[in-house]
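Data deposition worksheet. Section B asks for the primary sequence of the deposited chain exactly as it was used as input, without tags or linkers unless they were present during the calculation. Section C holds the resulting structure in token form. Section D is free text for depositor observations; keep each observation to a single sentence. Incomplete worksheets are returned to the depositor.
Section A, Depositor: J.P.
Section B:
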Amino acid sequence: MASGYREPTLDELQALVEDHWRRHSGTYYRHLSRAGDLEAAARAKAEETQAEARTLIEGGMSPIEAWSQAQREIALVLI
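Section C:
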């Protein structure tokens, strides 16, 4: 892996997803929160992001590029 690079943890990704939804998709965030589904939905999105980044890395993409792409395409997509 790249020097100084550290893969984000699932907890970090989950927090990123929750914060992004809160700031950019408040209605969706509130709906999930009221239904008690926010943590599970954000965790699932974090796991999907992690799996995609690892697939991209295995395919030859640099870790930094892979995580950046996976976050843009999965974790930070507005619902």
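Section D:
Residues 38-58 form the longest helix (21 residues).
The mean pLDDT is 90.
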